[in-house]
Amino acid sequence: MANNPSAIKRNRQAIGRRLKNRSQRSRMRTSIKTLRQAIDSGDAKTARELLPEALRLVDTTAQKGAIHRNAAARTKSRLVLAVGKLS
Q1: Closest to 38 in 3D by CA, of 47, 29, 28
Q2: Which of 54, 34, 38, 55 has its CA nearest to residue 46?
Q3: In whole angstroms, what is the distance from residue 73 CA to residue 55 CA?
Q4: pLDDT grade, residue 2 (50/70/90)?
Q5: Range of the domain at 26
């Protein structure tokens, strides 16, 4: 447990950051999940429609620091490849 005022404030800030990061990651993962479901079902048209939104969410999540930029690049690359294989 934090005792001095600066540690207490840091703890408060960490809680807020954790909640924001969690929310960002959750939105990103949901978007990726729906895109992957479209890919698995073989629905190329829907997958192409969902791809830009998923890529945008991956980018913004990385930009905000919720995920590492290399993890974002890897995820985007794999999604684009998977959608490309449907065509």
Answers
A1: 47
A2: 38
A3: 9
A4: confident
A5: 5-86
pLDDT tens for 26-65 read: 999 999 999 999 999 999 999 999 999 999 999 999 999 9
Find the radius of gyration of the CA atoms of the chain: 17
Q: What is the 3-state secondary structure (H, E, C) of 22-53?
A: HHHHHHHHHHHHHHHHHHHHCCHHHHHHHHHH
Q: How many helices (H) and strands (E) does the chain have?
A: 3, 0
Amino acid at 66: A
Q: Tell me, what CATH number does 29's domain have?
A: 1.20.58.110
Query: Rounded to two decimals, what is the model's pTM?
Result: 0.87
* Helical packing angle, 44-63 and 69-86, nearest 10°: 170
Cα angle 40-43-46, degrees, rounded to a multiple of 5:
115
What's the structural domain count of the chain? Answer: 1
